[in-house]
Amino acid sequence: MEQEVTVKINDKMAGAYAKGYPLITKEAVESSEALKTEGAIVHLTDKRGRFLAKGYYGKQNKGLGWVLTRDAEEAIDQSFIERILAAAVQRRKTYFDDPETTAFRVFNGEGDGFGGLTIDYFDGFYMISWYSEGIYTFKELVVAALEQVVNAKGIYEKKRFDTKGQYIDDDDFVTGQRGEFPLIVKENGVNFAVYLNDGAMTGIFLDQRDVRNTIKEKYAKGKTVLNTFSYTGAFSVAAALGGAVKTTSVDLAKRSSSKTIEQFSVNGIDYESQDILVMDVFNYFKYAKRKELAFDLVILDPPSFARSKKYTFSTSKDYTDLMKQAIAITEKNGVIVASTNSASFDMKKFKGFIDKAFKDLGKKYSIVEEFTLPSDFRVQKEFKAGDYLKVLFVKLK
Ligand code: SAH
């Protein structure tokens, strides 16, 4: 069924592939002319034609595809996928065995040996995310392999590539039993309502699990909490359960309000005792400053890029400014949870943004907690850029 092509890698990058670098990039290939059919198996060779690695063509914003093996003889078939899935499941044994956490990542793309593909677990259901047309050509094999390796109640999928209307979406259901939504999953004992059948987002970002738990266990008790870019209010729920005096959640999306009410409700928290605002965060900062409001704990978790009616925000350009606005409404000795999922800069640079904000304001701070991706979001050591999450708990002095 599948096509096989050969692509030459330039001298500069050949060594990296020989050592396990997983992403096939435009810069590394001598010519991408052979790369025409999404899903084609690609043999990477050096300029003299010596085999380096084998992968597939699947265009994403990150690159042209992913390396799957450095063994020229290894077939990319269902049994290959079963082997890497089984290994991934084995690595998550402690998650599967923990009754207090029933939502986590089972398979994390190149970190588990197959870039462009992730699989999340939600209380017996599995959700596959496909990041390119190329990986989607492996659908039958991946689904069959997954059914062999795990005992799934049902399987759902998210197509995270431009489908150009090619695929008809019937509520993202793939096979097995249909779920009843919201599905209530647990994370360190906290409930979250999750939808696998309702567009791109499920209601919870699993990569923030450790951050939520840290807020709940160490930073919320007796505190006033402002959660900006709050989405379904997951950080607010964690803070409220951790004993916060009150939480204020701010998000621009109209849906965020009913979604946040739902997350509070499935945890038995009276949402009316919390503030839930549908509002532009940048307007809220102005409002809070005018009213001289100040919070003990401020959570900043903006999208990498956002455009609202009045403001355009890009993490890599505007984080320092965002941080300054947050500092202005944080109590003395308060803590700001500064988070970003932008893969376009590393932790060092992120710390630079924070540092500049304090320097500009002539204020002092210390970093009291630091997070990257949790262990279920496995990262390959040859591809550190896969660890996109950066979270710092910054204490004002
Ligand atoms: N912190 C959340 C995830 C945030 S997702 C969590 O942990 O669950 C980003 C959110 O930012 C989206 O819900 C989006 O609606 C919101 N958003 C984007 N621009 C905004 C703005 N200018 N003001 C308020 N919310 C904004």
UniProtKB/TrEMBL annotation:
Organism: Planococcus salinus
RlmI-like PUA domain span: 7-70
Domain of life (superkingdom): Bacteria
Protein's recorded name: Class I SAM-dependent rRNA methyltransferase
GO MF term list: methyltransferase activity; RNA binding
InterPro entries, per the entry: PUA-like_sf (IPR015947), PUA_sf (IPR036974), RlmI-like_PUA (IPR041532), SAM-dep_methyl-trfase (IPR019614), SAM-dependent_MTases_sf (IPR029063)
PANTHER family assigned: RIBOSOMAL RNA LARGE SUBUNIT METHYLTRANSFERASE YWBD-RELATED (PTHR43042:SF3), SAM-DEPENDENT METHYLTRANSFERASE (PTHR43042)
Keyword Nuclease: no
PROSITE patterns for this protein: PUA
Domain S-adenosylmethionine-dependent methyltransferase: 115-343
Gene Ontology BP term (one): methylation
Keywords noted in UniProt: Methyltransferase, S-adenosyl-L-methionine, Transferase
